[in-house]
Amino acid sequence: MRRLTNQQPFPPELGRPVATVGMFDGVHVGHRRVLADLRDWADELGTTTLVVTFDRHPREMTRDEDVPFITSPEHRMILFERLGIDACAMLRFDESMQQMPARDFVIDLLCGRFRAQGVLLGYNARFGRGAEGDYELLRKLADEGVCQARLSDRAVYAYGRPISSSAIREAIESGRLKEAGRMLGRPVAILGTVVRGEGRGTRLGFPTANLDLHHEAKPPAGVYITRARIDDRWWPSLTSIGRKPTFPDPPPEDIVEVLIPDLDRDLYGEDIEVRFARKLREQEPFGSAEELVAQIKRDVQSLRGDEP
Question: What's the pLDDT score for residue 308?
Fold first, then answer.
């Protein structure tokens, strides 16, 4: 999949794609229906697919909210690629983007710089300054010959309501992983960069990978049975989320540590994806390092029991 910005020249090999625009945070079941409609349209026209998305949530600027991603920009691009999307334009959502009129967004950006011959919107998608852009505007531009327009108007429901990123985010942060997974259409997952930790796990004989999640939402504190994707292979793993209650001077926020018992390799600087299967236990303080080691060994045995 080609990864684009709004600053670089558009690759001619992509031709004149059909495009869709939105945050697509989570790339959930509803988003996947829009992307499938986009793929079908591209196949009808014999062209390519382009997803236009943003590097930060617009609410962070318009409402001064701190909104964690379900899927960070890099994680979204990985998921788009798995769904067969040909190109993704990751736009910087700055003040100029925030103030761009919806009409200019379509004419100058989508159909100008990115050469889209058609634009498809999800049933509730909005774009442009003050979210003024909608399908009705897109239809008017189509009547003016700017581009073709289509609407993916089929809402996808779960638990009696349309699937939404906000509902999924709340389910993840509340620990309702099965509910979130049903709405996502896949297991809850995080993507993070391995960063240097304090080395306590290595000294205890269980080296862990500390993850920087790049502002992704995570489940509540606890120890989880997980799978970690490294070198295109999913490895059985344990993931601990919390503030290391056994040790003094707890960190100011939860630390995410991944233990991969069958992998003996330094992962520093790599991005790894972690899928959650189930919660194994709560985090708890231990009276000594020896007690903690004994519990980790029991956790690893539980992991072995969960392997297919």
Answer: 45
- SS3 percent helix, strand, coil of the chain, rounded to 5, is 35, 25, 40
The DSSP symbol for 168 reads H
182 occurs within a structural domain: no
Domain check: are 108 and 200 in the same one? no
Number of domains within the chain? 2
Residue range 61-93, pLDDT digits in tens: 666 667 789 999 999 999 999 999 999 999 999
pTM: 0.92
Residues 6+ apart with CB under 8 A from 1: 77, 80, 81, 85, 86, 87, 88
Asked if pLDDT for residue 98 goes beyond 60, the answer is: yes
Domain membership of residue 164 (yes or no) is no
Residue among 72, 106, 58 nearest 214 (CA)? 72
Note whether residue 11 is domain-resident. yes
